[in-house]
Amino acid sequence: MSAAAFLKLVEIRTKVASFTPFLLGNLYLVYHYSNFNIFNFFLFFFSLLCVDMGTTAVNNYQDFLRAKRKEGYNYEEHNAVVNYNLSEKNVKKTIFILFLLAIVSGILLYLNTDVIVLIIGIISFIIGILYTSGPVPISRTPLGEIFSGFTMGFFITFLAVYVHNLDLIDLVINNSLLIIEFKYLDIFKMFIFSLPLIFGIANIMLANNICDLEDDLVNKRFTLPIYLSRSKSLKLFRYLYYFSYLSILAAVLLNILPLISLFSLLSIFIVQPNINRFEKYQSKKETFVLSVKNFMIINYSIAVTLLIAVAF
């Protein structure tokens, strides 16, 4: 398998959806805490990247196996298995290696942290597998946006902080009782902070499903837009961005984000035209990328303000 085929199979350009929560989680860590473990930082990043690439490869392979429509942009060009005429054996081998690397690095991270990392890692791994495979993959149901948004938007952000601060959650065994102690206020603040990530990732999934609505009907992928209709899905697409901006305002008012982060609200003047353009025309080839751009614009504007706050 060539490097170009591999990068297409794992859709490397889409890894921004997992890298961004990782980056913002670490910026949140530096802004609010003093602990930083460089070894855990790289272990988590490598494991995260391998899981994300492996899940995407499985998704492309499953689409190749299940697809009934054999023509159109979404199949011939978007699916790497068809585009590069990849053998099923090589695709399976690649998926196996990626997940093996993810498991090994994940175990090393667990050995260097605690069981909470292992538990969340296993849950995320199972969700990743069920998201793209099984009798009814999550990605083919109306729950795809919820699972992708929460798992990637919150779990990644939380773990990016937790692997450096193991006292956020404690498991204590006392006289045959399992007691869970956690700093609920810290975790709540982290959740509020991650809302623009959750909504942005959900909107990437939503935009993808809106663009694929007709093909999904043929291929029996009963995604959220099929249940909501195109018009209502486009309204949801718009409102999720507005909720992102409201969550930024709330985070500043609750001292979760610095005052300077209010400047990130100005990104609406770039995001709004992209929303309008996507509402007028939904195309995997031409306008789907706007959801990725909006995700980056909103969250990297937050990242820049955090960097400034940390530096000064």
Automatic annotation (TrEMBL):
Organism superkingdom: Bacteria
Q: Which GO terms describe its molecular function?
A: prenyltransferase activity
Gene3D superfamilies in the record: UbiA prenyltransferase
Where would you find the membrane-spanning parts of this chain? 37-61, 94-110, 116-134, 146-164, 184-206, 239-272, 292-311
Which key words tag this protein in UniProt? Membrane, Menaquinone biosynthesis, Transferase, Transmembrane, Transmembrane helix
Q: Where in the cell is it found?
A: Membrane
> Its membrane topology, per UniProt?
Multi-pass membrane protein
InterPro entries xref list: UbiA_prenyltransferase (IPR000537), UbiA_sf (IPR044878), UBIAD1 (IPR026046)
Which pathway, per its entry? Quinol/quinone metabolism; menaquinone biosynthesis
Q: Where is the signal peptide?
A: none
The biological processes this protein is annotated with in GO are: menaquinone biosynthetic process; vitamin K biosynthetic process
Q: Which GO terms describe its cellular component?
A: membrane
Q: Which NCBIfam families match?
A: PRK06080.1-4 (NF004752)
| Name of the protein in question | 1,4-dihydroxy-2-naphthoate octaprenyltransferase
> Where does this protein come from, organism-wise?
Halanaerobium saccharolyticum
